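Q: Hi! First time doing this. I have a protein sequence and I read that you can turn it into a structure. Is that right? Here it is:
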Amino acid sequence: MTVPSPYADRLSRLPVQRHEVEVSGGVTAYWVYGPQDAETTVIAVHGFRGEHHGLEPVLAFLPEARVIAPDLPGFGETSPLPGQSHDLDAYAEWLTEFAGTVAPGAVILGHSFGSIVTAAAVAGGLETPRLILMNPIGAPALEGPKGLMTRLAVLYYALGARLPERLGTALLRNRVIVRVMSITMAKTKDPALRRFIHDQHDTYFSRFSDRDVLRDAFVASVSHDVREFASEIDVPTLLVAAERDDITPIEAERTLAKRFSDASLVEIAHVGHLIHYETPAEAAGAIRRFLRIPVARGR
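A: Yes, that's right. Below is the predicted 3D structure, encoded as structure tokens:
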């Protein structure tokens, strides 16, 4: 990372510890933010191609909570799942085992692809008192307002998987393509914040273990959405959605919220699929209200 975070001061006040645990036959790296004696513990699952750093701006505005942020298998510092395809079932099973091992009964939060993983896991039996979905994938990606871009992405990941390994991996980690993705998603007009977002993607968006894992995860991300699991989730659920999300239109998010037995929807204006970078304070405020976390003095 070469561009200072606009949230660095807040983050510097958060205690952070790195840990590892064996889950599903592989080693999962995870970070624990906030006070160990916090009344509320949250497990936060990041999105496709990202890793735990992406959610740090939101955590910076939740200093009263204890947040456990793992890297998904095959991304960041977490090893791939040995001998398995990295499909949605595998990720949901991994999350269920991880939560049961590290923090049974924690609140579960998922962003973007993480919203699909967490919804699948909770619908499949992962016990949690509450579920939080940020930028939830509430409709098929191929049908969204950027459906053409998604189809081009399908071709891109397919080509990366079929080329000779060295060439295919280089294509998938190509900085120009990563920058195009970043520019497409960012909605803010603030030049400093845009530089930070692009630097985050430059730094963390290509930390996947190998192209096979990336291909599997991409297929899982465009083959499923939260709608499949909403009716099977019976815990209070918060959806934090963006009015300008190019992946799931806000109208689809409103329809998605009605599929849950007990869900509330918070809409954030002037932002797209990068709520966690562009409007983390608003997202954290919605989460705090949903979890009834009081603001600590001096924060």
